[in-house]
Amino acid sequence: MVNNGAKKIQLLGQYQAKLDTKGRLFFPSKLKKILGKNLIITRGYEGSLIVVKRDSFNSLTKDIQDQPFVFGAARETARFILGNATEITLDSQGRFLFPAYLRKHAQVKNQVVFLGLGTYVEIWDKKTWDDHQKKLETKISSISEKIIKTKKKENEN
């Protein structure tokens, strides 16, 4: 959920857009209404990108930043998430210049899919998302079961 004044609003749904010839991307208006125009974009997992409201970035990355730098996994995660983050500002038409290094990470060629995932947005290359979603559909039951089993173990301890 994203705190939007007095209300907490969840980012939901799927939206498609195309990269223009100048390397700009239209940010979906429904998501813009919730997040505003000042955003941070960074690398995500499975070849995706993560977009959050600029004001929310620290709370999203708090666990990463709170880890002692002597832990190798903490340093690597900080490099991956924080070291690849950049601030973007949507123009009056809701577009932003899509950084080339992030396009390369997400293998974005032309069409993208935006996914509203509660507190953040993911951006995927459309073909990569379609392929990932097909794999996800075959594994979602076992993934959900693992989460439930992990939660039960945590509650037992």
Walk me through the structure.
The protein has helices spanning 29-35, 57-60, 62-65, 72-81, 100-105, 126-156, and strands at 2-4, 7-9, 11-18, 24-26, 38-43, 49-53, 86-89, 95-97, 111-118, 121-125. The protein is an alpha+beta fold. The protein has a single domain, classed as Transcriptional regulator MraZ domain (Chemotaxis protein chec). The strands form 3 sheets. A 6-stranded antiparallel beta sheet has the order 3-9-10-6-5-7.
Features:
157 residues, alpha+beta, Chemotaxis protein chec, 6-stranded antiparallel beta sheet, two-stranded antiparallel ribbon, 6 helices, globular
**CATH third-tier fold name:** Chemotaxis protein chec
* CATH class category label: Alpha Beta
Largest sheet descriptor: 6 strands, antiparallel
The helix/strand class is alpha+beta
Strand share of the residues?
25-35%
| Model regions low in confidence, pLDDT < 50 over at least 5 residues | none
The count of helical stretches stands at: 6
Shape annotation = globular
Radius of gyration: 17 Å
